[in-house]
Specification:
single chain; about 260 residues; alpha+beta; rod-shaped
C-alpha cells in the first residue's frame, strides 16, 4: 500500500507516464495512455483521485503506452503495480451543502449524491470516536497494569518485612537461651499511666541489648557461613551442659 505522493514520484522521476487503475474487483476504472509529460500525467492522476469515492485501488504504471492503436495490450513492457487507498476526507475541498430541509421547499429536490459529503463526515466522526475508544481502553489497561505493579511491590515489601521479623525473633529466642540475664529487661512492662526513671532506664537498656545482639549476629552471619548451625549448637550446649558452656565462654573471653 502506497501514498499518492509516491505514485507522483514514480511518474515524475522514473518516467512511468502511462498507467491503468483497477478497482477491488480488478476491473479497469481509469487509464492514461496519451503521450504527455510527467507533470501532466500527475495532474491527470490527481484529478481522478480527488473525485473518486473511497476505496482500495491498484495502479499499474508503464514506461510507454501499453496499448496498440487497435486497443490490444502490448506484452513485455516494463511496469510496476501498487495498491493505494482513496480517503474521502482528502477530497473534501468545499463547504458541505445544507442539510435537506434547511433551505425551504427547494431542498426537497435533492438527489442521493448530495448526501455523500454528509456520509463522509459521519464516517469521519465515527472513525474518530473509535480511535478515542481505543485510547481510553489503552489508558484503562495502563492504569490496571500500574495498579497490579503497586500491589505486587507492596506484597513483596510485606513479605520481606515478615521474613526480617521472623529472623529477628529467631535470633532473640536463641539469645534468650544463651544469655537470659541480658534480656530480662525485655520482659519488664511498666504500669499503665505511670512512667518512672527506673522504667525508662530499663527500657533503654533492653533496647541497647537488643541492638548489640542484632549487630553481633549480623557480623557473624557475614563472616561465618555456618552461623545458624553453630549458634543453635551453642544454645543446646547451654541447656544440656551449662558448665561446659561456661568454660567455653571463659575461653572465648580470654581470646578477646
Amino acid at each position: 500500500m502506497v501514498k499518492p505522493e509516491y505514485i507522483h514520484k514514480l511518474i515524475k522521476e522514473k518516467g512511468f507516464n502511462y498507467w491503468v487503475i483497477y478497482n477491488a474487483e480488478k476491473q479497469p476504472v481509469e487509464a492514461q495512455t496519451k503521450a504527455i509529460s510527467g507533470e501532466e500525467s500527475c495532474a491527470e492522476f490527481t484529478n481522478w483521485y480527488e473525485n473518486m469515492l473511497s476505496g482500495t485501488y491498484t495502479i499499474k504504471l508503464f514506461e510507454r503506452n501499453p496499448y496498440t492503436t487497435s486497443g490490444t495490450l502490448v506484452r513485455n513492457i516494463r511496469s510496476v503495480n501498487y495498491d493505494f487507498t482513496v480517503n474521502p476526507t482528502l477530497r473534501e475541498k468545499s463547504p458541505l451543502p445544507p442539510v435537506p430541509g434547511d433551505s425551504g421547499m427547494g431542498a426537497l429536490g435533492f438527489n442521493n449524491n448530495s448526501l455523500n459529503p454528509w456520509v463522509d463526515r459521519f464516517l469521519e466522526v465515527k472513525e474518530t470516536i473509535a480511535g478515542l475508544n481505543v485510547q481510553l481502553e489503552n489508558n484503562r489497561l495502563k492504569e490496571d497494569y500500574e495498579r497490579r505493579i503497586r500491589e505486587m511491590e507492596a506484597a513483596h515489601a510485606k513479605e520481606l518485612e515478615s521474613k526480617a521479623n521472623a529472623w529477628e525473633e529467631r535470633i532473640m529466642a536463641i539469645a534468650s537461651t544463651v544469655a537470659p540475664d541480658l534480656l530480662k529487661g525485655f520482659m519488664q512492662k511498666p504500669i499503665t499511666g505511670v512512667e518512672t526513671e527506673t522504667e525508662t532506664n530499663t527500657e533503654n537498656m533492653a533496647q541497647d541489648a537488643k541492638a548489640r545482639i542484632l549487630n553481633a549476629v549480623n557480623k557473624l552471619i557475614e563472616k561465618d557461613p555456618n552461623f545458624t548451625e553453630n549458634i543453635e549448637k551453642l544454645a543446646k550446649l547451654v541447656e544440656k551442659n551449662p558448665a561446659t558452656y561456661q568454660q567455653a565462654v571463659k575461653m572465648l573471653n580470654s581470646f578477646v
